[in-house]
């Protein structure tokens, strides 16, 4: 079959990836079960051109919006940032007083004598204090039962602790900023994975259709070769070559079906839904810098991994100050009020109040604090080295993706020229074979070369889109802010502002 109904045309545009055939859609569910196993994907169809309406197709941007809103990895990172926000409230608690309320009640029995030695007046007063409230037995033995009880409030306020609270707050804030940048890095990773899985489904679907079309062409080629063999125009060798090539083509269909199944599973993992009617993907060229030097400069300045590492350095330095604060004096103030009943004798009722200032000066605690300070200073040095390492990694990643994008652009142009040349060559070989100037093997080889060229073009078009997003990711801008993803951006600052100054409450701002 060489008519228009079975031809697949693949053309290149500079701003989009197009897998085109006259019918507009490639439905991978409608296959011939007698010739090959069907790829059972309920209701799954992938757009192969521009014929599908925008309302019926899943675009790359809408797929990324689903990944942005529901990807478990991204939601987990957001929860981690919210948990880190609470570290600021925890650190600020050092500025605030601690208040405790205590109460006690018990029972106490007394049996004994009030002696007459010593001050007679005091003994008489003690005896008189219990005269009407207790029973006095023989020989001057006094017995009574009391219920001692009381309640009080104690307030403690730290006035100075070597600036530990200040530095703990600084460290907590640096950790928050670092986690925000890590969240942005996770967002870029999720979006890039979504782009890759989206384009893999498109390219693997187109590759599968090319291989299935190749099987149909080879089946027709085998039929014609057998007819020519029956009339003596070709030999049994020609028939065997056609059969072998058809068997190999069917094997390639099985491989292509397996690759498509794998890409669909990855798509479901990254996007969260099954792929249905995917529209062509477009490169993100508008956010790709004009040259490599500009890309490197932007990456070194804006990439979230670098910024996260720098905030980690700030947090480590603040921790050194916290540990040094342990060597400073501590000044605190304590106030207490207590109401007591029946503490010693029946009818006892007293209110006590106190306010006490305390100063604690550490002199020597075995050298532990000094070792911790030295240890943390080494951690600071390590985090600085790690920041330099991240810079080198970002630079290498920018150069890597930039080179891949440039190569993909060149490969698209070369692959398109290769397809056009192979189409002309195949038509010529077929015409020459009809007049006996070419063998069946020549025709089969030309057909295979055209198939390979078309697959190469599909791969180059896929890479063209993926690596444009890769460059934007490498410079640190693959976020919903810079892409046309139709979704409201998540703001980590909202939760931070809600909890950073809370004095009490066990419910999180979302109601949990």
From TrEMBL:
Query: Could you say which protein family the record assigns here?
Result: Belongs to the outer membrane factor (OMF) (TC 1.B.17) family.
Q: Which SUPFAM superfamilies match?
A: Outer membrane efflux proteins (OEP)
In Pfam terms, one family for this protein is OEP
- Please spell out the taxonomic lineage of the organism that makes this protein: Bacteria, Pseudomonadati, Pseudomonadota, Alphaproteobacteria, Hyphomicrobiales
Task: Indicate what this protein is called per its UniProt record.
Answer: Outer membrane efflux protein BepC
Coiled-coil stretches, from where to where? 208-259
Q: Where in the cell is it found?
A: Cell outer membrane
Q: Which domain of life is it from?
A: Bacteria
Which keywords does this chain's UniProt record carry?
Cell outer membrane, Coiled coil, Membrane, Transmembrane, Transmembrane beta strand, Transport
- Taking the first listed entry, what is the main subcellular location of this protein, grouped into a coarse class? membrane
Q: Name the gene behind this protein.
A: bepC
